[in-house]
């Protein structure tokens, strides 16, 4: 693609417009001959410091902040075109959207502290049930009816994201639901995505290592509604959620369509809710009539997630009746309150991805009614992530469970003992078992008939990040092994 097409909204230096660009990247290590390299200021490094390496690797153009142009000019060969701009992250994303131009016809996005993966997955399943070739994209990677692709970040970098949207569209995927993380929104990873509708789930404690204040965290999330959703788009929200008023006022100020769900919602108004076996029966008032829906999932929060997903599907043009019928066959996202095993003694083990205080409270509250005996939980906290949430997670676990085991999650570059210590501050009565597999074994050993054990924090993950190595680890596998070991010990009378 020619530089002038790629940089349609920027001033391209004289004579450089016809320069052919063969690819884009913000990582000098990924540059190939003919590439444009975007020099971005990051959390750890300044990309401008890698411009010389990028040029040596074959970059023919460099996108950078306007005030970096003069400094870089002297360091680079004359032939390398320097493209200064106000906001290089935004410009890179818009370029990526032009370079990888195809997108599914309908793209919806969801943001919030918890529930993004679940809402994106439910929305995909509803789209699919209406006969549309569909995908979801987020923490689980790309999920389609054919299976799951590799996942890294919740919201991929803009070049990777637009490449994936282009691939999906070429693969005839017409409907896509994607997760918008606060990091992704703040870093303009989603700019250039053509959205039909956007939803807000909730805002609780997370990522206070990255966002200086809750207001800053909320502001990042609100970008989805303020900057990314175009005029004519629909905002889906439960007005009863904390901070929903901020989302609604943006929708009103910008004249966006508003679709509200939940007890005080108008389009999908929840008028009744009762448990039924391992599910819940919802009664709903809608402009298309009243419905009774049996949701095959437990937990009040899954009701919110299901209604938000239904709202996104309706905002995308699907009919209310079939959308609500589709909820009756919805499957929970992998690793979210997922049944993982049953011990011979009659205890149940559930794997859940709660790794923030609110999520943990909600997951344990959802399980409590099903525990005729004790409710136990295994928790840890990730390294290189918001340290302030650790003690609060410990506290939530101690308050809501009958026994707590504190173990390692993904320590990353941190000392795992110090992470556990912070969690234990909130749960002084907990047992500490560093090794996650051993913690799960011990949790399983504790189970008697009617007890439930919730293994929290890692959900669908298949690795444990220790330092910069990813060691194979799956909570589901560890649970299966612990149950099998216990059974063979019982058989041999050990
Ligand atoms: C803190 C954070 O979000 N960092 C993201 C950010 O990196 P950065 O720009 O700050 O990186 P940096 O290391 O400071 O480097 C600055 C620039 O120099 C470049 N560089 C660096 C070294 C080199 O040799 N050459 C080179 O060109 C880098 O490519 C980068 O462009 O932009 C990168 C590209 O988009 C992301 O990969 C990276 O995610 C890191 C790996 C990460 O761990 N992010 C997590 C916290 C994250 O984003 N999580 C969210 C939230 C999850 C949720 O709760 O839902 C997610 O969406 O997954
Ligand atoms: N609407 C909700 N409100 C509160 N907690 C929720 C909600 N939905 C899910 N949870 C809890 O949060 C955990 C993570 O859910 P999910 O993966 O859907 O959220 P997410 O926003 O995608 O999280 P992440 O940002 O880590 O990707 C679940 O396992 C559950 O414990
Ligand atoms: N998307 C989340 C994943 C956290 C998963 C948890 N197991 C941990 O490592 O903290 C994050 O990047 O904060
Ligand atoms: Mg997610």
TrEMBL record:
Keywords: ATP-binding, Cell cycle, Cell division, Cell shape, Cell wall biogenesis/degradation, Cytoplasm, Ligase, Magnesium, Nucleotide-binding, Peptidoglycan synthesis. Its cofactor is Mg(2+). GO terms for molecular function: ATP binding; magnesium ion binding; UDP-N-acetylmuramoylalanyl-D-glutamate-2,6-diaminopimelate ligase activity. One of its GO terms (cellular component) is cytoplasm. Residues 21-68 form the Mur ligase N-terminal catalytic domain. ATP binds at residues 112-118. Meso-2,6-diaminopimelate binds at residues 385, 409-412, 457, 461. Carboxylation is probably crucial for Mg(2+) binding and, consequently, for the gamma-phosphate positioning of ATP. Pathway: Cell wall biogenesis; peptidoglycan biosynthesis. It is an enzyme of class 6 (ligase). Transmembrane segments: none annotated. Residues 335-459 form the Mur ligase C-terminal domain. Gene3D superfamilies: Mur ligase, C-terminal domain, Mur-like, catalytic domain, MurE/MurF, N-terminal domain. One of its GO terms (biological process) is cell wall organization. Residues 110-313 form the Mur ligase central domain. It catalyses: UDP-N-acetyl-alpha-D-muramoyl-L-alanyl-D-glutamate + meso-2,6-diaminopimelate + ATP = UDP-N-acetyl-alpha-D-muramoyl-L-alanyl-gamma-D-glutamyl-meso-2,6-diaminopimelate + ADP + phosphate + H(+). It is found in: Cytoplasm. It holds the Pfam family Mur_ligase_C. Belongs to the MurCDEF family. MurE subfamily. Catalyzes the addition of meso-diaminopimelic acid to the nucleotide precursor UDP-N-acetylmuramoyl-L-alanyl-D-glutamate (UMAG) in the biosynthesis of bacterial cell-wall peptidoglycan. This is UDP-N-acetylmuramoyl-L-alanyl-D-glutamate--2,6-diaminopimelate ligase.
């Amino acid at each position: 693609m020619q530089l002038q097409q790629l940089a349609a909204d920027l001033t391209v230096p004289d004579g450089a417009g016809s320069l052919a660009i063969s690819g884009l990247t913000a990582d000098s290590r990924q540059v190939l001959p003919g590439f444009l390299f975007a020099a971005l200021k990051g959390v750890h490094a300044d990309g401008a410091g890698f411009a010389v390496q990028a040029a040596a690797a074959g970059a023919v153009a460099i996108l950078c902040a306007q005030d970096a142009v003069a400094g870089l000019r002297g360091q680079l060969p004359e032939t390398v075109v320097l493209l200064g701009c106000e906001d290089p992250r935004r410009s890179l994303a818009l370029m990526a959207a032009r370079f990888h131009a195809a997108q599914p016809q309908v793209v919806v996005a969801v943001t919030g502290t918890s529930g993004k993966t679940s809402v994106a997955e439910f929305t995909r399943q509803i789209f699919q049930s209406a006969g549309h070739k569909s995908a979801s994209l987020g923490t689980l990677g790309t999920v389609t009816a054919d299976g799951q692709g590799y996942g890294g970040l919740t919201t991929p970098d803009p070049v990777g994201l637009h490449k994936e949207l282009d691939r999906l569209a070429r693969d005839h995927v017409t409907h896509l639901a994607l997760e918008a993380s606060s990091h992704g929104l703040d870093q303009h990873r989603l700019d250039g995505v053509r959205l039909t509708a956007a939803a807000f789930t909730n805002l609780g404690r997370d990522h206070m290592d990255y966002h200086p204040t809750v207001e800053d965290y909320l502001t990042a999330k609100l970008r989805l509604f303020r900057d990314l959703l175009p005029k004519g788009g629909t905002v889906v929200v439960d007005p009863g959620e904390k901070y929903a008023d901020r989302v609604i006022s943006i929708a009103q100020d910008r004249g966006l369509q508003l679709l509200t769900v939940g007890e005080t919602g108008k389009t999908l108004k929840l008028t009744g809710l009762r448990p039924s076996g391992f599910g819940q029966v919802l009664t709903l008032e809608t402009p298309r009539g009243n419905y009774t829906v049996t949701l095959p999932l437990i937990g009040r929060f899954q009701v919110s997630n299901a209604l938000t997903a239904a709202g996104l599907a309706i905002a995308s043009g699907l009919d209310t009746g079939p959308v609500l019928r589709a909820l009756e066959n919805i499957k929970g996202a992998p690793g979210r309150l997922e049944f993982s095993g049953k011990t011979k003694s009659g205890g149940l083990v559930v794997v859940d991805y709660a790794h923030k205080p609110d999520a943990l409270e909600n997951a344990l509250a959802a399980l409590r009614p099903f525990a005729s005996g004790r409710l136990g939980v295994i928790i840890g906290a990730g390294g290189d992530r918001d340290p302030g949430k650790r003690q609060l997670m410990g506290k939530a676990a101690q308050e809501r469970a009958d026994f707590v085991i504190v173990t390692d999650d993904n320590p990353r570059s941190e000392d795992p003992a110090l992470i556990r210590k912070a969690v234990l501050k909130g749960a002084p009565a907990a047992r500490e078992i560093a090794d996650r597999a051993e913690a799960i074994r011990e949790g399983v050993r504790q189970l008697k008939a009617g007890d439930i054990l919730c293994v929290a924090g890692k959900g669908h993950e298949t690795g444990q990040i220790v330092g910069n190595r990813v060691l194979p680890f799956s909570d589901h596998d560890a649970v299966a092994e612990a149950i099998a070991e216990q059974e063979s010990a019982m058989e041999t009378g050990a």
